[in-house]
Amino acid sequence: MAGSIGDKYYDVFLKYRLWLCNQSDEGILGDGRFELLREIERTGSLKSAADNLNISYRKAWGNIKQAEELLGFTLVIKQRGGKDGGSSQLSTEGVQLLAAYDELREDFDQSIKKITKKFFNKINKNGNK
Amino acid sequence: MAGSIGDKYYDVFLKYRLWLCNQSDEGILGDGRFELLREIERTGSLKSAADNLNISYRKAWGNIKQAEELLGFTLVIKQRGGKDGGSSQLSTEGVQLLAAYDELREDFDQSIKKITKKFFNKINKNGNK
DNA sequence: TTTCGTTATGTTCAAAAAAACATATTGCAA
DNA sequence: TTGCAATATGTTTTTTTGAACATAACGAAA
Fold first, then answer.
1. Domain count along chain B
2. CA B89 to chain centre
3. Which helix (H) or strand (E) holds B65?
4. Does residue B1 fall inside a structural domain?
5. Chain mean position to CA A111
6. Which of residues 9-38 of A touch B (CB under 8 A)?
7. Is residue A123 situated within a structural domain?
């Protein structure tokens, strides 16, 4: 929340986005894709993950593939065929990267809180309404 | 830089974007627009600012207008006509907001450094190459 | 009262991103 | 040996975004 009711910046919020990219500035993984990895880990299926996150299978699959191509290694081990049609699970690298990202995100959020508070205190301060 | 040569994540970089938005998630001001404000403050002209930043006047003007509409107050005091055709300068609010954002950005950058380092140390650590 | 450079704004074109559609492949189990 | 459900991909359509184009209004100074 930006400030108190009546503040000049009452309806203003500070947001941020984090992502990994390569030197050519091509996006590798951001919040959305990490969430997808998390859901694959949880459900054991790319399709279920996509369905649960309300994105098309086509898009989910393409996102994972692109990330893997840019990284140069596999994040998701995929199997097709079989009685259930197939399944997916995170590779060791995928598990580790996801865990590291979760921690990163937490540290980030934590760190941002006081900075944000300082910012809104400053722009909402008296004489500025 | 992500890590040392040979690291698994050598060509991976962490980036982030900061911006202000309202409750409806409409973007108000981000890095680009703040840079525009800064250039207007410096040059005293929206046109000069746009030219210097290599964006069209049309776009620069629209960006400022949208930000002002969402905020509900003026960021840039614009005058047209006159011997020089017109001029623009930041309002008191504009000056204050820009200053606060500059400080915010600095705090943010500072705070992010060690978090980033920790992240890459983790994912690049031995046994993970 | 004409000129000039800037602000002001509608409109149209082009490019990029995302969504939608369509179809093939795989391999266990019945 | 057929059916099934999930993975694998190419193609087309739609949406979004941004760039480009065009043109009006303004007002001090010459």
1. 1
2. 18
3. helix B57-71
4. no
5. 17
6. 9, 11-23, 28
7. no
Q: In the predicted model, is pLDDT for residue B22 greater than 80?
A: yes
Quick check: B104 and A115 CB within 8 A? yes
CA dihedral B80, B82, B84, B85 (to 10 degrees): 40
Q: Which one of A108, A113, A114, A120 makes the best mutation probe of the B interface by having the most chain B beta carbons within 10 Å? A: A108
* CATH number (domain holding residue A94): 1.10.10.10
Distance between B28 CA and the closest CA of chain A, angstroms:
8
Is residue B21 within 8 Å of residue A12, measured between CB atoms? yes
Give a yes or no: residue A113 inside a domain.
Answer: no
Sequence-ordered list of residues with C-beta below 8 angstroms from that of B66, at least 6 positions apart, any chain: B28
First-to-final CA distance of chain A? 17
A124 within a domain of the structure (yes/no): no
Q: Which residues pair with A14 in a beta bridge?
A: B20
Q: Name the residue with tokens 């040979």.
A: B6
Interface check A8 vs B, CB under 8 A = yes
**pTM of the complete model beyond 0.70:** yes
Mean pLDDT, to the nearest integer, of A19-47? 96
Per the structure block, which two tokens stand in for B124? 């690049």
- Where in the sequence is the domain holding B81, given as residue range(s)? 19-124
A75 contact residues in B (CB cutoff 8 A): none
Nearest-Cα distance to chain A for B81, in Å, is: 31
Task: Please tell me what DSSP assigns to residue A100.
Answer: H
Residue pLDDT, tens place only, A50-103: 999 999 999 999 999 999 999 999 999 999 999 999 999 999 999 999 999 999
Nearest CA in chain B to A31: B16
